[in-house]
Design goal:
A hairpin with a 4-residue loop joins strand 4 and strand 5. This protein is about 45% helix and about 10% strand. The protein has two domains: about 140 residues, no CATH class; about 170 residues, P-loop containing nucleotide triphosphate hydrolases (Rossmann fold, 3-Layer(aba) Sandwich), CATH 3.40.50. The strands form four sheets. It has a five-stranded parallel β-sheet with strand order 6-7-10-3-11. By secondary structure, it is an alpha/beta fold. The longest helix has 17 residues.
């Protein structure tokens, strides 16, 4: 079982009565609710990972979504299920997470891979030498799956174009190493995935969304998550987080963003423990909202949802935060129709 405090398993509340505050906060910080969309995203990683053992062309995929919807939690959870191991000769890393830097280039991605593999000279050399070292280290560390985080950095937002040479380099890397890759990033990464060099390879895709209050199913899902969290918190008493009015206040305070919701829950827990209480109260949540969320762009300007009379009609005016986010980018007709000379393997791996 993962070291995370996964909420699928209930626990005896009484054991927390005399537990130290710090222990409880650490436990809460590891809480993870495996809701259906989370599980589906984990399955993308699993399917691509397992494709390597079957031989043939590796299966690659994508996990996309706006900031705060849980992409990082999915990836980190999967990495914890496949931890690195020290052997006599090297450190084995079954799943390697690589953060792609802005303005991605073949040399930059090769350096990012070397940095993730803890190569001390990760930035030194030409694109050819960095690529060669990256390939050798990937094999030596027995990497079975690469996760490229911040993959949207392969789309140039200013010039509205895909970093074509980087996408081509990535294709050659997959062919040469036969290691499956799952990319994770913001919605504009779709532009990269539609490009000629990536569309066919990254077929297994999952888009994560925030919670919605606009449908009965959405409300049930949101309140169900609150109930699971309440049942799993390291407190000796239940806090009634899923009760209808309080759940509505939670939605107003988070606009359906899982990251904001977990900020409220973890902050509320810390506030209650500091008071010497064994349950979270609305006043605790009001303080957390004011301190940590009130200045977030999508929440700025609204009244504190945990203070005063509850305005249920306000829920009808709230749109999920990730639906409000419009990237506003697209390939121009000229860019879409412009034909590029196909680069040779030597140019892609050796650079010019």
């Amino acid at each position: 079982m993962s070291r995370e405090a996964i909420t699928d398993r209930s626990h005896d509340r009484s054991k927390w009565q005399n537990a130290p505050i710090e222990e409880r906060i650490v436990f809460a910080n590891k809480l993870l609710v495996l809701h259906p969309r989370f599980r589906e995203a984990v399955e993308v990683l699993k399917r691509c990972h397992e494709s390597r053992a079957r031989g043939g062309e590796p299966q690659c995929g994508a996990i996309l979504g706006a900031s705060g919807v849980g992409k990082t939690s999915v990836v980190d959870h999967y990495i914890r299920l496949h931890p690195r191991e020290e052997t006599e000769t090297t450190i084995r890393q079954p799943v390697l997470k690589v953060t792609v830097q802005p303005d991605a280039t073949p040399k930059g991605i090769a350096a990012d891979i070397l940095l993730a593999l803890e190569d001390p000279a990760w930035s030194s050399g030409t694109v050819q030498t960095l690529t060669n070292r990256a390939v050798k280290l990937l094999m030596r560390c027995d990497v079975e799956l690469i996760v490229l985080d911040e993959f949207h950095h392969l789309f140039d937002m200013d010039r509205l174009k895909v970093m074509t040479k980087a996408a081509q380099w990535l294709k050659v890397l997959i062919v040469n190493t036969r290691i499956p890759i799952v990319v994770s990033g913001m919605p504009e990464a779709e532009h990269v995935l539609r490009a000629e060099h990536t569309e066919r390879r990254f077929k297994d895709r999952q888009t994560l969304h925030g919670f919605t209050w606009r449908t009965n199913a959405g409300r049930r899902e949101f309140r169900g998550m609150l109930k699971k969290l309440d049942d799993s918190l390291p407190l000796a008493e239940a806090s009634g987080l899923a009760e209808q009015e309080l759940a509505g206040r939670f939605y107003l305070a988070s606009h359906g963003v899982p990251d904001y919701l977990m900020t409220l829950i973890r902050g509320g827990l810390a506030e209650s423990l500091q008071r010497g209480s064994e349950c979270i109260e609305q006043a605790d949540l009001a303080r957390v909202y004011e301190m940590k969320l009130s200045q977030q762009r999508v929440l700025r300007g609204q009244a504190n949802p945990f203070v005063g009379q509850f305005d249920i009609s306000a829920l009808d005016r709230i749109q999920p935060a990730d639906e409000c986010r419009h990237v506003g980018v697209g390939l121009t007709p000229r860019a879409a129709h412009k034909r590029h000379r196909t680069a040779t393997s030597n140019e892609l791996l050796g650079g010019r």
